[in-house]
Every structure is written in C-alpha cells, then in structure tokens.
C-alpha cells in the first residue's frame, strides 16, 4: 500500500542515507590523513624532497637559513645545492625547520628510508672531496662566524681547515653545522 507521501518519504530516506555516507567518508578520509601525518618522519620527508628536487629553505641551529634543492642525503648529512650552484653539506642534527614553498605538495615523509641514505655520512662525503682540497667555509655549533680556508685533511672524528693566515683549525665532526664549498 502506497500513500500520497510515500515518494517524499523515500526521497528523504535516500537523502539522509546519502548524507550519512558522505559524513562517514569525510571522517574516514580525515582519519587516514591524520594517520599518514602521524607516521611522517624527517628522513622520509628529506627523501621525498630530494626525489622531487623541490626548492626548500632549511633553518639551522646557528639561526642561519639556506635555500636550495636537496642533492644528496646521508645518515647525518643533507647536501643542499644553492641557487648560485654552490654546495652546502649540512649536519642533519643542525636543521631546526624545513620550509616548503607556498602552493607546493603537502608532503609528510611517511615512507621508509632506504639503505643508500645510511651508507653516506658527512665524513665519507668529505673524504671524497679532500683530495681536491676545496675552498670551504665551515660553520660550527655555537659560532656564527664560519672558519674559511682549504679542506686540508680528515682525521677519524675531525676535519682540518688550512686558513689563509697559515694557521690550521681542527674541527670535531660533532661540532660541524655546515661545510660550504665555495668557488675560491
């Protein structure tokens, strides 16, 4: 038996069911997005940024900022190619914030990091460069003034910079914030 209002009742019932399904779907999407964000980590975010070659600005413990594109990653290292072409080897532990450009993708770093990242570190990266004796500016924790000179030698846990005045500065790797490779 159908009455004059049964079509209206059926439409209201269907509309309510559609609305409830839409609310459930929105809630589920929000929950999944939250879970993804909660599983994000620094290593995964850095890998995402390096693969995409997106521009980033990294804030450092010294208060300085460096802007460029991530070129390589290591267990304790982020190699950042600056807009002018220079390379900065940054201590991962010295990064205090990562700023992405406006309108970019919403990356959260929710994926595992491969073994390749763990094999490279600051010491091994500098070991590849030391034979060329590049001109560097080394910024250390607790000092805003970089040590300028030539990367002269590496020890087990320190690097040595030959300064223009003839002196040599020995810097423990644990104190390095940035090794800025310059053009001379």
Q: What would you say this structure looks like, in words?
A:
This protein is α+β, with helices and mostly antiparallel strands. The chain folds into two domains: 1-38; 42-181, SH3 type barrels (Roll), CATH 2.30.30.100. It is built from four helices and ten strands; from the N terminus they run ααβββββααβββββ. The protein has helices spanning 6-38, 42-52, 115-119, 122-129, and strands at 55-60, 65-74, 77-82, 87-91, 95-99, 135-140, 147-154, 158-162, 168-172, 176-181. The protein has a ten-stranded antiparallel β-sheet. A hairpin with a 4-residue loop joins β1 (55-60) and β2. The radius of gyration is 26 Å and the shape is rod-shaped.
Short description:
The protein has 2 domains: 1-38; 42-181, Roll (SH3 type barrels).
Write the layout of secondary structure elements.
Elements: H1 6-38, H2 42-52, E1 55-60, E2 65-74, E3 77-82, E4 87-91, E5 95-99, H3 115-119, H4 122-129, E6 135-140, E7 147-154, E8 158-162, E9 168-172, E10 176-181
Antiparallel strand pairs: 1-2, 1-5, 2-3, 3-4, 4-10, 6-7, 6-10, 7-8, 8-9
Largest sheet: 10 strands, antiparallel
Order of helices and strands: HHEEEEEHHEEEEE
The termini sit apart by 93 Å
Q: Briefly note the structural class of the backbone.
A: alpha+beta
Mean of pLDDT: 84
Helix segment count?
4
Radius of gyration: 26 Å
**Given this structure, which CATH class of the largest domain is correct?**
Mainly Beta
Content of β-strand: 25-35%
- Shape estimate: rod-shaped
Quickly count the domains. 2
Q: What is the CATH fold-level name of the largest domain?
A: SH3 type barrels
The main sheet orders its strands as: 5-1-2-3-4-10-6-7-8-9
The count of strands amounts to 10
The level of helicity is 25-40%
**Uncertain spans:** none
* CATH architectural grouping of the largest domain: Roll
